[in-house]
Amino acid sequence: MNHLLTLTLLAIGIAGVTAATTTTAAEQDTRCFEMRVYYAPPGKLDALNARFRDHTLRLFEKHGIANIGYWMPIDNKDNKLTYILAYPNREARDKSWKAFMADPEWQKAYKESEINGKLVAKVEQTFLTATDYSPAIKPANVGNRVFELRTYITPPGKVDAINARFRDHTVKLFAKHGMTNFGYWTPMAGQKGADNTLIYLLAHKSVEAAKASFGAFGKDPDWQAARKASEEKAGGSLTIPGGVKSEFLNATDYSPTK
């Protein structure tokens, strides 16, 4: 083979490998996500939602905070509002929140909204990293659907095994049975549950559709085989007793994801 041609083909091959590597790396979502849960005092949830609708979302975006979605439990006995934000990284998150909190427009909106009392009694927050098998996490206004926030807690040392099962089997089987995979996360290092927790969000046409989908999923021979093989390899169940939590949510009227 001509020496020049050989060198050319070699260069093309190297470039192709480099391009493929770059593409793969680009597909990994390395952003810092934050899930925040607000508990409103009795009678204050509407006012809290109004503040988000009229002020907070716009001011978040002004300061570089990406609004992913806002939801309330269908059975909202605790006056909860759950939302997910995204930032380029943790350092950017802290910088954005500092600027947001110092913004005179926010300070005015905050003060005026709480003339008759605090709108938030308790806040829970978790910093999250998207798993390598999560679909692209971005707002999507589809409408007329419900969401399901699911949390799995694994026995010690088995979080990698459950992620492998989701990566290789579960996510595809969920889609096969009519469930929409919205996002999959694990708590960041240093966060509670970083070594034993998987958090994910599904979308369904309705609660009834969700139950039908999970029923069909549970009976699927491919799922049964994957579950059996993964548990045999791990030496037992990949979740602790009581370690699977599910909460059905409706998107708020101002949520960018519906």
How would you sum up this structure, described in words?
This protein has 258 residues and is α+β, with helices and mostly antiparallel strands. The chain has a single domain, classed as 2-Layer Sandwich (Alpha-Beta Plaits). Helix content is 43%, strand content 25%. The chain has 7 helices and 8 strands; from the N terminus they run αβαββααββαββααβ. The protein has helices at 3-27, 45-62, 90-102, 104-113, 159-176, 207-219, 221-234; strands at 32-39, 66-73, 80-87, 122-130, 146-153, 180-187, 197-204, 244-251. An 8-stranded antiparallel beta barrel has the order 1-3-2-8-5-7-6-4, surrounded by 4 helices. Strand 2 (66-73) and strand 3 form a beta hairpin. Helix 2 (45-62) packs antiparallel against helix 4 and helix 5 (159-176) packs antiparallel against helix 7 (221-234). Mean pLDDT is 92; it is low at 1-26.
Topology-level CATH name: Alpha-Beta Plaits
Helix % is 40-55%
In spatial order, strands of the major sheet run 1-3-2-8-5-7-6-4
Domain count, please report it: 1
Measured distance between first and last alpha carbons: 59 Å
Beta strand count: 8
Instruction: Show unreliable segments.
Output: 1-26
User: Can you summarize the main beta sheet?
Assistant: 8 strands, antiparallel, barrel
The global form is globular
β-sheet strand percentage:
25-35%
**CATH architecture call:** 2-Layer Sandwich
Radius of gyration, in angstroms, nearest whole number: 22 Å
Structural class: alpha+beta
How do the helices and strands line up, and which of them pair or pack?
Blueprint: H1 3-27, E1 32-39, H2 45-62, E2 66-73, E3 80-87, H3 90-102, H4 104-113, E4 122-130, E5 146-153, H5 159-176, E6 180-187, E7 197-204, H6 207-219, H7 221-234, E8 244-251
Antiparallel strand pairs: 1-3, 1-4, 2-3, 2-8, 4-6, 5-7, 5-8, 6-7
